[in-house]
Amino acid sequence: MGFSSRNVFFPLILVGTALFMLATYRVAGPRPLVKPRYIFVDLGANRADSLEAFLQVTGAKYHYFYPRPEWASHAQAEIYLFEANPVFNTHLVKAREFYANKGIQVNIFPSTVVDVKDGIRTFFLDTVNEAHDYWGSSIYANHPDAVASKSKGTDLTGINIARWLLQNTLPQDFVVVKMDIEGAEYEVIPHLAEMSTWTVIDHLLVEWHGAEVGGGTPEEIQFRDKRASAAKNKLIAEGVTMPAYDSSAIEICAFSGAKIYPGKGKIYVRVDNR
Fold first, then answer.
1. Contact 126, 97 (CB under 8 A)
2. Picking from 81-95, 142-156, 204-218, 234-248, which range would have the lowest pLDDT averaged per residue?
3. Phi-psi domain of 212 (left: phi exceeds 0; alpha: psi -120 through 50; beta: other)
4. How far, in Å, CA of 71 to CA of 203, rounded?
5. Distances (CA, A) of 90 to 95, 99, 100, 173, 234
6. Which of 1, 26, 165, 246 has an alpha carbon within 20 to 30 A of 63's alpha carbon?
């Protein structure tokens, strides 16, 4: 058998590489664990009313104790506000500025439609319910308030919210999503399930508006309702908490005391509503 330099040098290269990696590890140490974040995503932020409820502002229009981890207060959360109606753009900008001065991080997505894909989405504005903050603005032309407003539709930026959540949050984060999007939940909730967003969402608070809001035949309405119900059940089965939620009807009358609840391997504190 002839002599081969490869038989000599290749083992030496392996040994040298191993020694270099060991020395690097001793100097740098193991990679630190990524610190979990507390994240609140408000889909349908309106004039930031839900944000005030989330931050437990005295005198807020709505009252609800949103889930939080034991290691963070509501004010320590990263906050993301999505709102389609352009009439609230100024309110969102002012909210971001106001809370920034208090050291609270608020990120805004004004004139942005919560959708199942990225691109332009026609949005139908409610212009008649001023006393209720134009709460009937919707992606559906036949939404009763859009019809009453004789809305012809406005083209706005749509965002694939499932993709956004998967790209911007991690499984170890504590993610609370509030959704009040005037019937679009019947499209978005199935998409969240299809995209396996249960890997990052801990709590999903949805205000349901009835499958008939989207219009169509009785068969189409029934199909829409069943599809959304199946998606909701799938998300819950995978560990997402989805309690009954109604933005306009929630009020805390008394605290029964803080309780500890396990959730997806995490611990959070909730104060029960009466």
1. no
2. 142-156
3. alpha
4. 16
5. 9, 14, 15, 30, 38
6. 165
